[in-house]
Design a protein that fits this description.
alpha+beta
Length: 125
C-alpha cells in the first residue's frame, strides 16, 4: 500500500493547472466524474416562481492589466500555468489574456488573489 502521508505531501505541491489535469486523467482512467452530484428538484406547481439559476462552477481567469509590478505578475502566471518566461511575459503584456480556463471557483479565486497581490487587474468570467 502507498504511503498516504507522502502522497498527500506530493499532491500539495501541484499547481492549480496540474491538479486540474490530474482530475481529468483520473476521471478518464476510472470512468467517473469529479463533479458534485446535483439533486433534481421537482417542478414547481403552476404559477410558482421559476427556480433560481444554477451557480456557476467553472471560471476563466483573465489578466486585464499587469499593473506596475509586471515582473511579479509574470512570476505568478508562471507559477499558475508552468509556462516559460517568454510565454508568461507575452501573456502579462497582452492585456485581457486568459491565464486559466474552466477551473473551479476556489482555484479561480485563489489565482485571482495571487495575481492581484502581485499588482494585476484580474477578471473572472
Amino acid at each position: 500500500m502507498a504511503d498516504l502521508s507522502k502522497l498527500v505531501e506530493e499532491l500539495g505541491k501541484l499547481t492549480v493547472v496540474e491538479a486540474a489535469e490530474l482530475v481529468s486523467k483520473l476521471e478518464e482512467a476510472w470512468g467517473v466524474s469529479a463533479a458534485a452530484p446535483v439533486a433534481v428538484a421537482a417542478a414547481p406547481a403552476g404559477g410558482a416562481a421559476p427556480a433560481a439559476a444554477e451557480e456557476k462552477t467553472e471560471f476563466d481567469v483573465f489578466v486585464k492589466d499587469a499593473g506596475p509590478k509586471k515582473i511579479e505578475v509574470i512570476k505568478v502566471i508562471r507559477q499558475l500555468t508552468n509556462m516559460g518566461l517568454k510565454e508568461a511575459k507575452d501573456m502579462a503584456e497582452a492585456g485581457n489574456a486568459k491565464v486559466l480556463e474552466a477551473v473551479g471557483k476556489e482555484a479561480a479565486n485563489d489565482a485571482k488573489s495571487k495575481l492581484e497581490a502581485a499588482g494585476a487587474v484580474v477578471e473572472l468570467k
